[in-house]
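INFO batch 0412 | record 1 of 1 | parsing
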Amino acid sequence: MRKILTLIVLLFCFQIKAQENNSNEIENSEEKIPIKSISIGLKIGVPNMASGTFEYVLPVMDNHIAPYVNYGAYDIQIDQTLIDLSYSEFGAKYYFNNQGKGFYAGLGISSFASSLKYTDLSLSGGLSGTGSVDLNIDTTILKLGVKTGGTLYFSFELGYGLGSIPDSLTFIGTSSNGYSESVTEEIPSIPGIGSGGIVVGNIGLGISF
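INFO prediction complete | emitting C-alpha cells
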C-alpha cells in the first residue's frame, strides 16, 4: 500500500512538473513572436480621398504607441470650381493590446491645403470672370479604428477633426476684358468638410513587417 501511495505521489509530481515546463514553453514562444512594427499602405475615404500612410510601433511602452503620418494630393471639380487639394496628417495611435494591431484610439493634427479656381464668377454690369483663392484648414483629429494583423493588413477608421472653417471666401475676380472687383463666394461642398470641422472616415490596405 505504501509503495502504491509513493508511486501515485511521484506520478503527480511528474505531472505538475510537465505542466510547468509546457507553460514555460508557451510563454517563451509567445515572447518570441516578433511585432510587425512598420506598416506602409494606402487609405481611401474622406477627407483624404486617397493617401499614403506610414506607421511605426514604438518598442517602448510595451508596443502600445505608434506614431503615424498620412499624405495625399488630388484635383477635383465641383460645379464651376476647380480644386487642387493636398491633405497631410500626423499623430499617434494607442493600441489597446501590445501587438501593434487590433482596436486603437488616435490623436493627430491635420492640414488641409487647397487652391480654388472659380471659372464662372458673376461680376458687376453682367460681366463674368474668373478668380483664385487659397483655403487652408488645420484641425485636431480624434479617431477610433481597428487594424488586422499579419503581413497584409486591413484597417478602418472613424473620427472628427476639430477646427475653424469659414463659410465663404473673399477674393478678386477678373473678367476677360481686364475688369476686376472683389467677390465673395461660398466654399464648395468638398466631401468630409463641414462648418464645424472635418469628418474622418477611411478604409486602409497595406503591408506590415
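INFO post-check: Residues 1-5, 7-13, 15-20, 26-30 have pLDDT under 50 and may be disordered.
INFO record closed
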